[in-house]
């Protein structure tokens, strides 16, 4: 009896336990991948005409070759606002509150540095170290 004429059943008998286990794992992996693909993508169905049709204009699109050839934007599209200057009044907006906080911190730091300078005027420096000849 030659090996080429043996049936499928006889070849599985010659496989080792490791080969049979690996064959089973590969089969399970293939089936689970196919079932996951079917669940996530849905079952195949005939193509539905759900694609919207887009109308295309027959006029060619012309782009200017440089910015100087572009038409200017109309003035009616531009909108400008005038901000009122924040006078001595305390503002409740974030910018006003931040400005007021910065002003207070700078004033406090300036006062602290002036007081420290006044205190240092009254303090005498330490005497010089004695000079010892050897």
Write a concise synopsis of the structure shown.
The chain is mostly helical and 134 residues long. The chain has helices spanning 8-14, 17-41, 94-122. It has a domain at 95-123.
Determine the number of helices (DSSP H or I, runs of at least 4 residues).
3
Tally of DSSP β-strands: 0
Series of secondary-structure elements, N-terminal to C-terminal:
HHH
Strand content: under 5%
- Helical content stands at 40-55%
What is the residue-averaged pLDDT?
73
> What does the main sheet amount to?
none
Structural class per helix/strand content? mainly alpha
Alpha carbon gap, first and last residue: 114 Å
**C-alpha-based Rg, rounded:** 44 Å
Low-confidence stretches: none
Gross geometry: flat
What descriptive keywords fit this protein?
134 residues, mainly alpha
Describe it:
This protein is mainly alpha-helical and 134 residues long. The protein has a domain at 95-123. Helix content is 46%, strand content 0%. The N and C termini lie far apart (114 Å). The mean pLDDT is 73.
Topology:
Layout: H1 8-14, H2 17-41, H3 94-122
């Amino acid at each position: 009896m030659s090996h080429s004429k043996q049936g499928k059943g006889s070849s599985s008998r010659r496989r080792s336990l490791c080969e049979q286990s690996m064959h089973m794992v590969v089969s399970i992996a293939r089936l689970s991948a196919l079932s996951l693909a079917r669940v996530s993508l849905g079952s195949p169905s005939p193509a539905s005409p759900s694609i919207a049709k887009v109308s295309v204009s027959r006029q060619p699109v012309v782009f200017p070759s440089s910015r100087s050839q572009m038409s200017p934007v109309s003035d009616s599209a531009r909108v400008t606002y005038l901000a009122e200057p924040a006078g001595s009044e305390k503002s409740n907006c974030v910018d006003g509150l931040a400005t007021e906080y910065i002003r207070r911190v700078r004033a406090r730091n300036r006062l602290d540095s002036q007081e420290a300078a006044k205190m240092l005027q009254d303090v005498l420096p330490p005497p010089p170290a004695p000079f010892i000849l050897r």
